[in-house]
From TrEMBL:
Organism the protein comes from: Streptomyces bingchenggensis (strain BCW-1)
Family matches, as InterPro entries: LysR_HTH_N (IPR000847), LysR_subst-bd (IPR005119), WH-like_DNA-bd_sf (IPR036388), WH_DNA-bd_sf (IPR036390)
Gene Ontology terms for molecular function: DNA binding; DNA-binding transcription factor activity
Gene3D superfamilies attached to this UniProt entry: 3.40.190.290, Winged helix-like DNA-binding domain superfamily/Winged helix DNA-binding domain
Family named by the database record: Belongs to the LysR transcriptional regulatory family.
Any one Gene Ontology cellular component term annotated for this protein: protein-DNA complex
Name assigned to this protein: Transcriptional regulator, LysR family protein
Pfam families recorded: HTH_1, LysR_substrate
Keywords: DNA-binding, Transcription, Transcription regulation
Domain HTH lysR-type: 4-61
Length: 299
């Protein structure tokens, strides 16, 4: 029998993450012997060894690594189903729209204004998050829709509508020599002495190699730029958080960025469909955003 219980998966994930049965048992709030027996029964049912055990703890086998990855996905899906079900049962609940802090600010403002003027439109709650978090918020049911950016964000498993296309700008310390340029190229910003490009996490959470600092939040990044410790290249509309100590200069050969509105492919919500239609209705007013140094230079 291949049916797996969520309890078994939770037990296995705890052991796989702790790599120690005693610590996993403490985390789960159960005794160690029944936890060990449950993992043994799971291995017997699946017909594979999930863990190599010794006196120091445990190590995942290849089969164990596969189950850990799949178990996390399955448990997230179960939790998301519960959240969506509870929220669907509340007729007064707002739709939750996730967006990266500081990103697509003008588009978001126009969308909220449009929805506020539409009779019967569902109320909107804006959930601000850090870079790359929108996909997780959609998948685990904490958000109904999200504003995301191609090619940077993980859009797997979502339906999307393109809303706008724009260029990118380099955010520099105001006193840096490059801040006086009318435009830059990727080559110009790739090897600036003493001012490396900030490194954002990849979709898998790892960081690319390079001399620039690893950044986690917009506020951390803003201060590092103001202190002359880093620069970054971002979509032009994402500079809403720009400080007076920053200057934005167009990067003329940077890839174009597409802002999309995304929602789970499984969604059947009429309220979500209506929100997406309203967002798509704004599309004609944007087109390809031309990055102009006069508009995106000093503030």
């Amino acid at each position: 029998m291949d049916d797996l219980e969520t309890r078994e998966l939770r037990y296995f994930v705890a052991v796989a993450e702790e790599l120690h049965f005693g610590r996993a048992a403490g985390r789960l709030g159960i005794a160690q012997p029944p936890l060990s027996r449950a993992i043994r029964r799971l291995e017997q049912r699946l017909g594979v060894q999930l863990l190599d055990r010794d006196r120091r703890g445990a190590a995942l086998t290849e089969a164990g690594r596969v189950l850990l990855r799949e178990a996390r996905v399955a448990l997230d899906a179960v939790a998301a189903a519960a959240r969506r079900t509870r929220r669907a049962g509340d007729p007064k609940r707002p739709l939750v729209l996730a967006t990266k802090t500081g990103a697509s600010h003008e588009l978001l403002r126009r969308l909220l204004d449009t929805l506020a003027s539409e009779p019967g439109a569902a109320p909107i709650e804006v959930l601000l998050c850090e870079v790359g978090e929108q996909a997780r918020l959609l998948r685990d049911g904490q958000a109904d829709v999200a504003l995301m950016h191609r090619p940077f964000d993980d859009l797997a498993g979502f339906d999307t509508e393109d809303l706008r296309v724009e260029g990118q700008v380099a955010i520099l310390p105001a006193g840096h020599p490059l801040a006086s340029c009318h435009q830059l190229t990727l080559a110009d910003v790739s090897n600036v002495p003493h001012l490396p490009i900030a490194r954002w996490p990849r979709l898998d959470g790892s960081y690319p190699d390079g001399p620039g600092p690893e950044v986690h939040t917009q506020s951390q990044l803003a201060q590092l730029v103001a202190l002359g410790k880093t620069l970054l290249v971002i979509p032009a509309s994402s500079r809403a958080w720009q400080w007076p100590e920053h200057v934005a200069v167009p990067v003329v050969d940077a890839p174009k960025v597409t802002t999309v509105i995304a929602w789970p492919q499984s969604s059947r919500s009429q309220e979500v469909a209506s929100l997406v239609r309203s967002a798509a209705g704004l599309r004609g007013g944007w087109g390809v955003v031309q990055v102009d140094h006069r508009a995106y230079g000093r503030r």
